[in-house]
Amino acid sequence: MGLLEQPAFLTLQGMKTQQLALSLSQRFSQDSQRFATFCLPFGEHMQVDFSRQHWSVEVKAQLCALARDMKLGGAIEALFGDNLFNHTEGRAALHTALRMPVDGCVKLQGENVVPLVHYELARIKAFCKQVQSGDWLGFNGQTITDVVNIGIGGSDLGPAMVTEALACYQDQGIRAHFVSNMDGAQLAQVLSQIDAARTLFIVSSKSFSTDETMTNAQAARAWFLAACGDATQIKKHFVAVSTNASAVQAFGIAAEQMFEFWDWVGGRFSLWSAIGLPIALTLGFARFEQLLAGAHAMDVHLRVTSFEQNIPVQMALLSIWNINVLGMNSEGVFPYCQVLKRFPAYLQQLNMESNGKEVNNQGERVAHNTGPIVWGEVGTNGQHAFFQLLHQGSQVVPAEFIGFARSVYDYPEHHRKLLGNMLAQAEAMAFGKNYDQVATELAAEGLSDVEVAKLAPYKVMDGNRPSTTILCDELTPYNLGALIAMYEHKTFVQGVLWNINSFDQWGVELGKKLAARLIDDLASDAVTTAHDSATNGLISQIKLWSKE
Ligand code: F6P
């Protein structure tokens, strides 16, 4: 039985009108305990406030019933053992094994994979020690000061986001750079900042066949050889992270210079594996372990906590309520934290590549919406750009605010103002400002009745716009690990309820194939006629202008 046929879902649909009839203002004025009822703790460092959503305890109970009816408990358990969630690629999804303690057990075809994980972690640790201690020397005997991660998607976004988020912990004397794009401008910018003799390139690619990564890696190798002049020195400056040992060796990186992960780790769930090497190198291995520990704590929370108190489960159920019942198909994520500026981009891959699907696990078209459009920006910047739409736009966008009570940056006044702004935005979205309030304010400013009547409609904010606030004590490696894992699990639970495979990404393949052909067409001198008129026309114009 699909989502739409579930009795609990039908009940939820029946509740919609009544729920929408009650505004957030009314809900809060009728219930002084609303925050206490809907705010859930995660350990001692994090809490998530769901009170500003268009829901009630009855809706929450029905959503939990829906999850039970759809066997969510069994699916969660399967995330920690043999599963075939990624059935279209014949693969398991076992990223939880990547942050299991050494004595943990996650079985794949009867074999515990946790020892494999810890074997690789030990290799990463030893390698980090060599580089950080200065034992690992470049071709002219100098130590390494810069690492350049060459990878894209899941082989870029996680480590790039985390190293920036935890920049204040970068005390290993090693800078991280990231090259992902097919636009050579990014590689050129990075190369202009580094010294070949003191740089380590990490070629990161699960498949080791992604065109962007291979093109950038070849160009980086050519640049390195031009500077060094000795191909035998490549081994001191290039390592790889991949599941594809033969392709790594074909590229010219020896087996002992490759850090392995496994096909049961999806690219967008891989930052906990060797893909996190830039994190461990720049922050130190101990901090990488704290990141893993935070993620593992969230795994345990997912596994043992009742649905009612389970934060990722509640996040996912709320999105089902907002998307499939209330019809709100976009989610805005707003970290009030400058160093989390890549977090929305990270979440876009995590959620949209996972749940942007229109076919269910039985190969049939789904009859309901699935993955939302996820977007966002750090606060307060977003306030001066697009928050106008959040407050008065004709589409309602549920918002997720992320804030930290303490900042490690020593600007207490900034931080107070930052958090004040975050709280203000959530309050303004929820409660707005009605006509009478606006009119009273304008009159107090000395406007005449006619002027008030003219201006007031533009200043009215209906409010009643939902948001969730995630509050942590501080942005530590542990908390960040937990936060990321929380969103991973939200994504997974959504996929279970939508009955889709959250772990494949067939939709990106066609574009890759077409690009290969179009790249050839662009290189050819012949007039291109093989495509539609738009593509042919654009190719002609590109060729014309590229000759100028
Ligand atoms: O094209 C999409 C994708 O396969 C992502 O799922 C993945 O994270 C990214 O490309 C990079 O893939 P790889 O790590 O194999 O280079």
UniProtKB/TrEMBL annotation:
Pfam families: PGI (PF00342)
Catalytic reactions on record: alpha-D-glucose 6-phosphate = beta-D-fructose 6-phosphate
The keyword Cytoplasm is annotated on this UniProt entry: yes
Job of this protein: Catalyzes the reversible isomerization of glucose-6-phosphate to fructose-6-phosphate.
Keyword Mitochondrion assigned: no
Protein name in UniProt: Glucose-6-phosphate isomerase
Gene coding for it: pgi
EC number: 5.3.1.9
Top-level taxon: Bacteria
Catalytic-site annotation from UniProt: E353 (proton donor), H384, K512
InterPro entries per the UniProt record, alphabetical: G6P_Isomerase, G6P_Isomerase_C, Phosphoglucose_isomerase_CS, SIS_dom_sf, SIS_PGI_1, SIS_PGI_2
Organism, as annotated: Oceanisphaera marina
Pathway: Carbohydrate biosynthesis; gluconeogenesis; Carbohydrate degradation; glycolysis; D-glyceraldehyde 3-phosphate and glycerone phosphate from D-glucose: step 2/4
GO molecular function: isomerase activity
NCBIfam families per record: PRK00179.1
Localization (cell): Cytoplasm
Annotated PANTHER family: GLUCOSE-6-PHOSPHATE ISOMERASE (PTHR11469)
Entry keywords, A to Z: Cytoplasm, Gluconeogenesis, Glycolysis, Isomerase
Family: Belongs to the GPI family.
PROSITE patterns: P_GLUCOSE_ISOMERASE_1, P_GLUCOSE_ISOMERASE_2, P_GLUCOSE_ISOMERASE_3
Primary localisation category: cytoplasm
